Amino acid sequence: xxxxxxxxLPIHNAQYSLVGRVRRLLEFxxxxxxxxxxxxxxxxxxxxxDEVAHELxxxxxxxxxxxxxxxxxxxVAAQTGVRLATGNIxxxxxxxxxxxxxxxxxxxxxxxxxxxxxxxxxxQLQPRPFDSSLVQRLTQWGAELRRxxxxxxxxxxxPLKSTIDADxxxxxxxxxxxxx
Length: 180
Description:
Layout: E1 4-11, H1 18-32, E2 35-43, H2 49-59, E3 63-68, H3 74-84, E4 89-92, H4 101-110, E5 121-123, H5 132-148, H6 157-161
Parallel strand pairs: 1-2, 1-4, 2-3, 4-5
């Protein structure tokens, strides 16, 4: 039985990158199998992604476009593509991951479907380098929090009255059992 491949592309606001990604796929997918489809799942894009995807589908009959009217998330978009895939092998290509031709080649060589096979969904899970800008943003956020400790704060007293006891001129906050 010849292997057929459904490649699912969950995307969001990808009008500038979509054409390049699809053309790259179309360069090597015919080498893997003659029976393939590319399912572009537009996850509620607000730019021109839908128009670009439909233009690609008009140019290339092996492309199908599926749309979510609002953003539901990459995993839901991937599930939509997997559910509507017709291939006996289904590969989900995450939007922000580079296309890895070697992984697709290995998948097609390892997977030997039989006539009773159901589609197989494979998602690339590669460790990503740690984003140093995240550490910088967290550090700045923490610095902002430290600055807030001084000065006056406006707090409505009613919720606090049940959680603190007054000792003379100071009011140490004490956790009570009713405060969870």
